[in-house]
Specification:
The protein is of the alpha/beta class. The chain contains eleven helices and nine strands.
């Protein structure tokens, strides 16, 4: 699968074999669009590549959406661009992909950064978001504000609706979602889950930063021992006044923590 990507600072320096780029994997419903501002700032210190994962953004739609699918997609991308060693940064769903990739291909990574996610099965589901988006009749949709109004019946948080609506593109009569909603709904149990059995009890001995929002409940203190069982060099840092979308809520603090980690010898 040929994943869509964007490079920063905008040229192909990220594919220069003399550099070690940061590859960013967005989370569920996320895309290159959501990461542009942060990536531009990070690119002042490192070449950056942000990927649209399968069934998201401008990347191809597929009939499956497992974590192994996304690991295989990432490996194919790295091989295609002759990227033999990278810094890997994943948020939420992207963080789970990053953890699984680190276990299967540790030799391809120099450092691993995981944003606001743990290698556990979560009890919540975003299926209600997907169903709400699927219920919008795109052929009859008059405007994005009309879509926002329809989503508000199910999703009360304005910031969440605006985030989801970034994947709605087009104009009246031609609106479309840059999300493969039906497949995401089908695979939601796997997305909020985690294939821990695929880790096979192995331990990754690479520098690994687990950065999470202080106001988020995705990474709990009780998760730390489990994470260290799989990532022996794991270090943890909480970002104050940030929730699950910490890179959007506190971009300066997240950037500072990430740079300190990546630039450390």
């Amino acid at each position: 699968m040929n994943l869509h990507y964007e490079t920063y600072p905008g040229d192909l320096s990220a594919f220069d074999p003399a550099t070690t780029p940061v590859i960013v994997l967005p989370g569920l419903f996320g895309s290159t669009t959501n990461w542009r501002g942060f990536a531009k700032n990070l690119a002042q210190s490192f070449p950056v590549v942000v990927l649209d994962q399968r069934n998201h953004g401008r990347s191809p739609h597929a009939e499956t959406h497992s974590y192994q699918d996304m690991v295989d997609d990432l490996l194919a991308f790295l091989d295609h661009h002759d990227l033999n060693q990278i810094h890997l940064c994943g948020h939420s769903m992207g963080g789970k992909v990053a953890m699984l990739f680190a276990h299967q291909y540790p030799e391809r990574l120099k450092k691993l950064a995981v944003l606001d996610i743990a290698p556990v099965v979560y009890s919540h589901s975003h299926a209600n978001f997907v169903r709400a988006m699927l219920e919008i009749d795109l052929a009859e949709l008059k405007s994005r504000s009309d879509a926002d109004r329809q989503l508000s019946a199910v999703i009360s948080d304005t910031a969440t609706r605006l985030f989801l609506l970034q994947s709605l593109v087009g104009s009246p009569g031609e609106y479309e979602w840059r999300l493969n909603l039906s497949v995401l709904l089908e695979y939601m149990p796997q997305i909020v889950g985690f294939p821990e059995s695929a880790l096979d009890g192995s331990v990754v001995d690479l520098p690994a930063l687990f950065l999470y929002g202080a106001n988020s409940n995705y990474v709990q203190t009780e998760h730390h021992p489990l994470i260290r069982q799989h990532f022996s060099q794991a270090e943890f840092e909480s970002v104050p006044n940030a929730g699950h979308w910490l890179h959007a809520e506190q971009p300066d603090l997240v950037l500072q923590s990430l740079l300190q980690f990546l630039q450390r010898d």
